[in-house]
């Protein structure tokens, strides 16, 4: 994606219900209620499922990822998550 392209010009990279893995440590930046600022919300490598898809600043998608082990639903950018392929 070029600098002048908007992510929203393309379809979402992930689908609702898709299994994803966190690519980096996610801490509370003050937007997650009930947790202290700086509290760890998801650790690198944790698995979750895309619960919904929203937008941020009319330029990018935000994926609400539900982590079953903590019950947290955390907003993640595309660069923060990756698809987990199911193996039969």
UniProtKB/TrEMBL annotation:
Domain of life: Bacteria
Biological process (GO), any one: nitrogen fixation
Pfam families (alphabetical): NifZ
Keywords noted in UniProt: Nitrogen fixation
InterPro entries: Nitrogenase_MoFe_mat_NifZ (IPR007415)
Family to which the UniProt record says this protein belongs: Belongs to the NifZ family.
Name of the protein described by the UniProt record: NifZ domain-containing protein
